[in-house]
Give the backbone structure.
Amino acid sequence: MGLAINVYCDESCHLENDRQKAMVLGAVWCPEDRRREIAERIREIKVRHKLEAGFEAKWTKVGAAKLAFYRDLVDFFFDDDDLHFRGLVVPNKDSLDHEKHSQDHDTWYYKMYFTLLKVCLDPHKTYKIYIDIKDTRGAEKVEKLHDVLCMNAYDFSRKVIQDVKRVRSHEVEQMQITDLLVGALSYLHRGLKDSAAKLELIDRIRRRSRYSLLKNTLYAESKFNLLVWQAS
């Protein structure tokens, strides 16, 4: 098989009854052989801003005091040619009609994860997918996700999608970038405006990506790819 790729996935407001309108799934990926170097560069950015190397960068921590750090983290993502992002936004979960499509919320959730990742997958490469799942059914959901991804990609022997596993986001620098980008999309699509720092960071992402963050990008966009999914 070809180049080995690591994919780091996160999600926001994915539960059925969490009273949040918009759901976001996201994935950052990079070549496995650059994983360590990228992580070291991110830790260097933290130290440069007088943060501990082990500081966990998260969207929920974005504020005026650390805005310069988060701007540099966003710029690092856009400046590194080996880092890529794909986001899937469901603007309004209230519009879902699972009964009409003979499915439950979990089934739809796995379909959305495949819809997120199918653009990232190349049958001539191999993938290890790392996911930060925040609810108590994490292990069960990861195994189910691996099954669904392989089945939909006709990868029955798991030669392409070799592994799907949970990780702790505070231990994985790339996952922290996923959290940041997913959080920004979630904040924007939920119409929140209570933090000037977060709005400024969203504008930074908008300017660096050259996209509005409200509409689909081109399907073949490889750096910052976005699908705003609509129920049929």
About this structure: Helices lie at 35-48, 67-79, 105-117, 138-152, 173-189, 196-209. The domain at 4-228 is CATH 3.30.420.10 (Nucleotidyltransferase; domain 5).
